[in-house]
């Protein structure tokens, strides 16, 4: 069989890439080792991820995908596809053996809203449903889909590549393609077959993870620990809920089908102390350490066996070569923290589809693939530097919260710039739009990591926090440096309007962008509502 493009792995990214390539007129085969529907994590989207999904849907005329970019349109178009409401990012700091004790100054909380209201909110993707939907869409567009197919060999040819393997019925498979794209995840087909060297992320611990899907998990905002604290900017469980503590963190993501995704990512010392590799017993030992989290899971029941991963971080030494490329999800994985995986992967999809659209059939394609590979690894390295700094600061919630704002400032700036038609200002992922931010962010992270290793004085710690806020301020378009908020950050129009000069536009252009994006709701009388 001969195809122009072969894609290995039918998760959401591989299927979306296949669908777009067919829209561009290319012949495409999508190859899957297993079948759908299937359990998968990597479930929480973000404003930038959803904006990229919108852009890809509009650019390549795939209107059936666009409703998946926000909660309201998703529920209207596809109510039977499992989905969770994500209004923001909720963080709570915990101490071993102690009940969570919220205080009026919110010293152990960080809430960052990602949308002004439910209708335009982000989502958690119930991957069993979401991935299967995209596979079906790709097939409907004319993609050749082969599941239950084990690939075993990859051979370079003058005009492309040849891959071979075996189908589940025992029959052999041989096919040729001009371009091979690997979307099969960390340590996937191309990485193993070409024996690519596995690199590492300096300073990022070799974290371990334990996770599954549950039912019966209590809402955090209905527990006694949060009463009498006032009304938060959004319902804190309708978000990506993070419990952080020395050595690791727990995620809790709710879907509208009653399922809750939850798990832990832990530094090696904590994972070994808790013996997370023992599955449910390791999970029980973790909950026993934090009484308030244990109470949240008091009536929870695991819906499937726990999955243990003995090493989360992964970085391939190369992400592209002659006639092949890795999607970001196959080139590197950092950590689920901050939901960086979706935007990184969709940026990679956008780079590859642009290259295929404009450079197909010429020598320029090879250069574009090389640039994609370099950018993929550069962006993963930047995300890893920030996550490494966050891991060493888990036990110091004030520092952790400040470092987290480096991420939220960068992505809110990038999202706003793209919505204004100024993608040139957005720069690389976490680039904040300008080279100066790409220098200041790693500098702040290096200082935090050094302090985590050697200890610090109160003066050094105060100086670092001051440096972090100084780095953020020129790119802060969301009011993140406003200390009066006491770490509860709503999504408001006023900071965006006041920061128009940072984006090189007028307040009027900001207002027009807010109207286009649905930031303001319209009442039956046509009046605008929202902050």
Walk me through the structure.
It is a single chain. The protein is about 40% helix and about 20% strand. Strand 9 and strand 10 (about 170-180) form a beta hairpin. Strands 4, 5, 11, 12, 13, 14, 15, 16 and 21 form a nine-stranded mixed β-sheet that branches. It is built from 17 helices and 23 strands. With about 525 residues, it is of the alpha/beta class. The protein has three domains: about 1-45 and about 125-200 and about 320-385, FAD/NAD(P)-binding domain (3-Layer(bba) Sandwich), CATH 3.50.50; about 85-125 and about 205-310, D-Amino Acid Oxidase, Chain A, domain 2, CATH 3.30.9.100; about 400-530, no CATH class. The relative contact order is 0.13. The chain has helices spanning about 10-25, 45-60, 70-75, 125-140, 190-195, 270-275, 280-290, 290-295, 330, 340-360, 365-390, 395-420, 425, 435-455, 460-470, 495-500, 505-515; strands at about 1-10, 30, 85, 90-95, 110-115, 120-125, 145, 150-155, 160-165, 170-180, 210-215, 240-245, 250-255, 260-265, 300, 305-310, 315, 320, 325, 330-335, 490, 520, 530. Helix 2 (about 45-60) runs parallel beside helix 10 and helix 10 (about 340-360) packs antiparallel against helix 11 (about 365-390).
Please write out the topology.
Blueprint: E1 2-8, H1 12-23, E2 28-31, H2 47-59, H3 71-77, E3 83-86, E4 88-93, E5 109-113, E6 122-125, H4 127-140, E7 144-146, E8 149-157, E9 160-167, E10 172-182, H5 189-193, E11 208-215, E12 240-245, E13 248-254, E14 260-266, H6 268-274, H7 280-289, H8 291-296, E15 301-302, E16 307-309, E17 314-315, E18 320-321, E19 324-326, H9 328-331, E20 332-333, H10 341-359, H11 364-392, H12 397-419, H13 423-426, H14 435-454, H15 458-472, E21 488-489, H16 493-498, H17 507-516, E22 521-522, E23 528-529
Parallel strand pairs: 1-2, 1-10, 2-7, 4-12, 5-21, 10-19
Antiparallel strand pairs: 3-6, 4-5, 8-9, 9-10, 11-14, 11-15, 11-16, 12-13, 13-14, 17-20, 18-19, 22-23
């Amino acid at each position: 069989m001969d195809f122009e493009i072969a894609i290995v792995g039918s998760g959401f990214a591989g299927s979306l890439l296949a669908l777009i390539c067919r829209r561009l007129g290319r012949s495409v085969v999508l190859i899957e080792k297993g079948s759908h529907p299937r359990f998968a994590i990597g479930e929480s989207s973000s404003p930038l991820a959803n904006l990229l999904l919108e852009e890809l849907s509009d650019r390549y005329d795939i209107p059936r995908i666009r409703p998946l970019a926000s909660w309201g349109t998703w529920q209207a178009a596809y109510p039977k596809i499992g989905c969770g409401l994500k209004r923001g990012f909720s963080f709570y700091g915990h101490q071993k053996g102690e009940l969570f004790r919220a205080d009026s100054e919110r010293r152990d909380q960080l809430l960052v809203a990602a949308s002004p209201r439910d209708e335009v909110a982000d989502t958690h993707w119930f991957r069993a449903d979401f991935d299967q939907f995209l596979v079906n869409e790709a097939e409907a567009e004319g993609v050749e889909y082969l599941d239950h197919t084990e690939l075993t060999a990859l051979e370079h040819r003058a005009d492309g590549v040849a891959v071979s393997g075996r189908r589940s019925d025992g029959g052999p498979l041989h096919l040729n393609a001009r371009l091979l794209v690997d979307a099969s995840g960390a340590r996937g087909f191309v990485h193993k077959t070409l024996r690519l060297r596995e690199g590492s992320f300096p300073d990022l611990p070799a974290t371990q993870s334990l996770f599954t899907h549950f039912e019966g998990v209590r809402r955090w905002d209905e527990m006694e620990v949060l009463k009498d604290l006032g009304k938060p900017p959004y319902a804190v469980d309708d978000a990506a809920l993070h419990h952080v503590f020395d050595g690791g963190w727990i995620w809790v993501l709710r879907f509208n089908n009653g399922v809750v995704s939850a798990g832990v990512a832990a530094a090696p010392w904590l994972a070994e102390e808790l013996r997370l590799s023992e599955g449910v017993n390791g999970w029980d030992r973790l909950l026993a350490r934090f009484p308030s989290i244990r109470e949240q899971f008091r009536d929870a029941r695991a819906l499937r066996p726990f999955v243990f991963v003995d090493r989360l971080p992964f970085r391939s030494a190369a992400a592209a070569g002659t006639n092949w490329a890795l999607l970001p999800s196959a080139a590197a994985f950092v950590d689920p923290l901050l939901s960086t995986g979706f935007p990184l992967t969709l940026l990679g999809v956008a780079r590859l589809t642009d290259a295929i659209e404009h450079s197909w059939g010429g020598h320029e394609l090879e250069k574009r693939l090389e640039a994609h590979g370099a950018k993929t690894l550069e962006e993963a390295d930047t995300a890893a530097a920030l996550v490494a700094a966050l891991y060493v600061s888990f036990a110091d919630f004030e520092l952790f919260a400040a470092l987290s704002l480096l991420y939220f400032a960068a992505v809110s700036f990038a999202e706003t710039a793209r919505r204004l038609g100024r993608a040139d200002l957005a720069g690389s992922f976490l680039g904040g739009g300008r080279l100066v931010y790409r220098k200041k962010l790693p500098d702040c992270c290096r200082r935090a990591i050094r302090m985590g290793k050697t200890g610090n004085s109160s003066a050094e710690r105060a100086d670092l926090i001051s440096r972090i806020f100084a780095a953020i301020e020129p790119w802060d378009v969301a009011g993140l440096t406003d200390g009066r908020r006491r770490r509860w950050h709503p999504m408001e129009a006023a900071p965006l309007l006041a920061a128009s000069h940072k984006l090189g536009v007028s307040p009027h252009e900001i207002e027009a962008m807010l109207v286009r994006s649905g930031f303001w709701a319209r009442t039956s009388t046509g009046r605008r509502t929202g902050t």
